[in-house]
Amino acid sequence: MAELTQNPKVPVKALELIKTPWALIVAILIAVALLDPGNWVEVVTFAGKALAHTGQYILFAVLLLSYLKATGAEVMVARAFEGRETRMIFLAAVFGGLAPFCSCEVIPFIAGLLALGAPLSAVMAFWLSSPLIDPPTLLITAGALGWPFAIGKAVAAVALGLFGGFVVRGLMRSGAFSAPLREYKPASCCGCGPKQDDKPVWGFWQEPDRRQRFRAEFVHNGLFLLKWLALAYVLEALLVNYVPADMIANVVGGEGVMPIVIAALVGMPAYLNSYVAPPLLAGLTEQGMSAGAAMSFMIAGAVSSIPAMAAVWSLVKPRVFATYLGLGVTGAIIAGILFQMT
After folding, report:
1. Angle at 275 between CA 188 and CA 36, to 5 degrees
2. How do residues 231-279 score in pLDDT, each as one tens digit?
3. Is residue 219 within 8 Å of residue 21, measured between CB atoms?
4. DSSP single-letter state for residue 294
5. Where are the transmembrane segments (predicted)?
6. How far is it, in rounded angstroms, from Cα 303 to Cα 233?
7. What angle do CA 201, 203, 208 make, to 5 degrees?
8. Sign of the alpha-carbon torsion through 201, 206, 209, 213
9. pTM
């Protein structure tokens, strides 16, 4: 009896392991080996080659993100929320794609800015552009879909932020969103967001604490990106091998607005993060998905990803949250149409 009660956390740890992308990868490969053993090598080879190709982008992205976190460069984002409202909206849309925030840090950072009187329009611009692009996402998208698509997504991210920011500004001037905030109580694990009066330390290697943070961020982000991209490429291999190309082409292929609208509406509830989506969309485009539909799907999915929605939902009232989602899907459709035309 004593031996049974000495390690009560073992079942919990086992359950957490089962929920990881690694466990899902193993389960998928075992399923392929059992149900279609003749195709197992092709699935593994496809996923392995794709992951190796993206490895160079992963390494650079992790190094860049670790450097930004070690230097404390994310504090520069606070400067976007100073000055005139129009200037705030422009800077918030741009910095939203550059800030190395995790979803945990965004909440106390934005809560503090809203409490200090930062306009909701600038915050909305930041919220809409932030989940769409960041340095790692840009590189991973380029590796999977090419630089034209990655640059197009970056432009769409800033444009969506500007679109949302100025729409909210107009609504606020007509009397909407007079009291947008919920009552916010920061959790103990998230009370360490960047401060506006901090300054980046570009030569971080001169301070032991910052060197340690660089190492910790490198390991953490490297494993995070590796596991999600490994899962994404395994899913892409399944997509290419088992989903008929004509089915994809019939739903989201071809010209016109309808495939783009369908892609946005499908991408919205898909909840794919920006690291999983590019490889899957690479597979879909090979199967016949149009470029505009791919862009629409990726933008709508990023805006509605669980971390992005949680950051918004935790701080603002339902009508502001609904506006965030509405602006996201509308912007995704517009971006898809414009990208298709280029």
Report:
1. 120
2. 888 888 887 788 776 676 666 767 778 889 988 888 776 656 677 788 8
3. no
4. H
5. 21-38, 50-68, 89-118, 138-168, 218-235, 247-272, 293-315, 321-339
6. 22
7. 90
8. positive
9. 0.73
